[in-house]
Amino acid sequence: MVAMSKIATGNGHGENSPYFDGWKAYETNPFHPTERPEGVIQMGLAENQLCFNLIKNWLIKHPEASLCTPQGVDKFKETALFQDYHGMPEFRQAVAKFMGKVRGDRVKFDPDRIVMSGGATGAHEMVAFCLADPGEAFLVPTPYYPGFDRDLKWRTGVELVPVDCESCNNFKITRNALEAAYVKAQEANLRVKGLLITNPSNPLGTILDRDTLKSMVRFINDKNIHLIGDEIYAATVFMEPEFVSISEIIEEEDVECNRDLIHIVYSLSKDMGFPGFRVGIVYSYNDSVVSCARKMSSFGLVSSQTQHLIASMLSDDEFVDNFITESKELLFKRHKYFTWSLSQVGIGCLKGNSGLFIWMDLRKLLKEKTFAAEMELWRVIINEVKLNVSPGSSFHCEEPGWFRVCFANMDDHTMKVALLRIRTFVLKNNEAMVPLKLCRPSSLKISLSRSLSRRMDDFMSPGIMSPHSPLPQSPLVRART
Amino acid sequence: MEFSTKNRQLLSRIATNDRHGENSPYFDGWKAYDSNPFHLIHNPDGVIQMGLAENPLCFDLIEKWIRENPDASICTAEGLDKFKDIAIYQDYHGLREFREAVAKFMGRVGGNRVTFDPNRIVMSGGATGANETVIFCLADPGDAFLVPSPYYAGFARDLRWRTGVEIVPVHCKSSNNFRITRAALEEAYEKAERSNINIKGVIITNPSNPLGTVLDKETLRSLVSFVTDKNIHLVSDEIYAATVFSSPRFISVAEVMQDMDCNRDLIHIVYSLSKDMGFPGFRVGIVYSFNDDVTNCARKMSSFGLVSSQTQFLLASMLSDDEFVGNFLRESSKRLAKRHHVFTKGLEEVGISTIKSNAGLFFWMDMRPLLKEQTTKAETELWRVIINEVKLNVSPGSSFQCSEPGWFRVCFANMDDKTVEVALDRIREFVLQGKEENNHEADKSQARAQRWRKQNLRLSFSSSRLYDESLMSPHLISPHSPLVRART
């Protein structure tokens, strides 16, 4: 028997969870519009695939952004040799500017505080290593991204304490809930070092309002603990209300805040749709943390080839402004069509304005209000409806019956198929449901298909629908979902 | 960095300790360079950077290949249709073509005596990330690894900082050319165990940084049998494998395992393209383990430092071009051999010897005859003179935990030919000056120098061919410091 570390032999990587059954189902039978039309549709992957045409058009016009074109190759050597953990100045400047634009230029970011990491995955782990010792804890409002269990805890030894949020007030993060969680941590002899929020929220697809943000800043200042704002979905806010970043809140006059406690995690994986490029950013207002994180970034720097490309792309103001606007537009349309279609069969979602997913309410389809029932329903959705969606319990949601459904990682045709399957399934289960307010069940079937085709034009994104890539992928292998 | 009491409480122990290694006095050399970097035309009296193990000698070949292969990029007209698929590809297994190309490359670098399995190729954030990942897989906080010295200064951070694991050096001596003996390993192991230090493995660097030498078959077999006996791990950092420019050839631990009775679950290789290809910026680190559990675990951990899919795509294309790879490896060896020869010959002319080496991007220079006394203090003094007066940033042996004072690592590949001449001139001047100033010591130092020469420490080069083709055009040396180097 060969000895490995405790970290290696434990379950901290999180992949032995039953939730990966959905992924396995997809992997063994992935949907393809022509080759496998009965396959499982991937709706568990929070990817932003809507704007690649814009990006490709820009690349054609800017060959110098690549090290491999005749126009760019004279930069190849110096870039290939560049391993400075400060990162290329142009890259940092471009990212800082982009972060500002995504926040409507209401706040400026300092390029010297931009620190690289191996995606947001690496950024979170790095921040945990900087702020907490093994055995210490972060508070995290539920429901939250399942990857946090690995990113924040696995190799760091840090604990996560959930802050309960409930649907009855739209999962708002209340001061009471924060205090309760803090007390609970203390009772478990866990020293709380910080509060981690995701804004816009994964999986909710909502943003935090100003009052909640201020309340949180007050809370962490009172307790002298850190506030880490994961803002990787910032540019996916596609409708009102407007996104408010922590970076804006701390500038407000009525907010007293020790800036040494404030840190932002950012990435280009969601906002730009570049998860493969591993562009993670740690932005801290604490100089010691910037300095420490920068040293740690050696373990996960952004490839200089990618820094070069991103520096070029994101310093093109016109392109960036246009991209942000277009992306929102396409997300808005997709989201609207999705939620409208679901509402036609009486399926509600949490009212959201951001993210690449909806938080779908299937509570009335549960046999009983238990997580066992949720899992049962989930297995039906995977195996019979053939959609890989993510059950709320995988996000540590306190209430059974919620599901996260991603809508931006597929083309229009696939989306149609997915919606049709949902509607078919719901109609089959009509008896189990609360009667619809909108239509009588008997007329529902007929009117649905007609309204579907009529409305589709309103919501479809223009351009050719490309078949969804059949690359078999699972979140077991996703750096981040 | 000074931490206020408040900050100490606010931040982690890891954030406030020194184990990142950057508060070391050795960075004075870097600071001297940063504030006064040499430039052939603009700053001819500046400090010449000889502390950076970079390999920029073959970029002409690479650039030619790039021009001829536009489909290797996702940004060219020829490659653009791949952009989306690659940009969204975040699978921690890595692109299959990338893994296959890297496995094939590793095989070629080892003289095709071993076939590497693409399914064991796991990505990491450079070799820096690879070494840390391996430690996280194999050891718990408080455990230790044996590391033969002298060893790469960055190990202090990579192996220890966030992992909480310790390094127990196995001191190797110049009297037998810093060979790693079984006796030394056993002694270090026993001593550690007696002090209740739990040894989990051995880490070797082959070819060696800083020595520039390769391990012979016997030593490798001895290492494999040692770890098998003790049931501990062997991690072989082989990132300089393709920098071997003359015989004896590189032998990977993978090759030695093939005809030995050993426990394969104990053997792991760390690889990278930073030295062999000259691509430190691309952060291509590889963990290759013969242990399935370690491979699986390292793969999950690779999420913290995957190789950019854009870079995977480029390298998959480049490294699967057999003709290019063959030519590159040959040329790289030639050019390194030539550069090595020019330097060591130049040093020999003024009586400075180096350890006999055939690999790496540096040589291990013997300055013991110039020390006032055989102490680390005297070495540091000499080092400061070399930086401040001779104006060369070289790395003192103590920064590599060398147990004998007086050795210096000098990088020779990271500069153009003209700068090489300037550096050699400065060294010659310094040595000759030293001889003049110490006339009354002249006989003593000559006798010393002769003694050293007799003890198998003759510098020599075994490259039998000299190459006349001109190397490269002078390039602007950009201000870099190892404070910021991911790896030096």
Automatic annotation (TrEMBL), chain A:
Its cofactor is pyridoxal 5'-phosphate. Pathway: Alkene biosynthesis; ethylene biosynthesis via S-adenosyl-L-methionine; ethylene from S-adenosyl-L-methionine: step 1/2. InterPro entries: Aminotransferase_I/II_large, Ethylene_sulfur-biosynth, NHTrfase_class1_PyrdxlP-BS, PyrdxlP-dep_Trfase, PyrdxlP-dep_Trfase_major, PyrdxlP-dep_Trfase_small. It comes from the Eukaryota. Residues 41-422 form the Aminotransferase class I/classII large domain. Its EC number is 4.4.1.14. CDD domains: AAT_like. Gene3D superfamilies: Aspartate Aminotransferase, domain 1, Type I PLP-dependent aspartate aminotransferase-like (Major domain). Belongs to the class-I pyridoxal-phosphate-dependent aminotransferase family. This is 1-aminocyclopropane-1-carboxylate synthase.
TrEMBL record, chain B:
InterPro entries: Aminotransferase_I/II_large, Ethylene_sulfur-biosynth, NHTrfase_class1_PyrdxlP-BS, PyrdxlP-dep_Trfase, PyrdxlP-dep_Trfase_major, PyrdxlP-dep_Trfase_small. Pfam families: Aminotran_1_2. Belongs to the class-I pyridoxal-phosphate-dependent aminotransferase family. This is 1-aminocyclopropane-1-carboxylate synthase. SUPFAM superfamilies: PLP-dependent transferases. Its EC number is 4.4.1.14. Its cofactor is pyridoxal 5'-phosphate. One of its GO terms (biological process) is ethylene biosynthetic process. One of its GO terms (molecular function) is 1-aminocyclopropane-1-carboxylate synthase activity. CDD domains: AAT_like (cd00609). It comes from Gossypium australe. Keywords: Ethylene biosynthesis, Fruit ripening, Lyase, Pyridoxal phosphate, S-adenosyl-L-methionine.
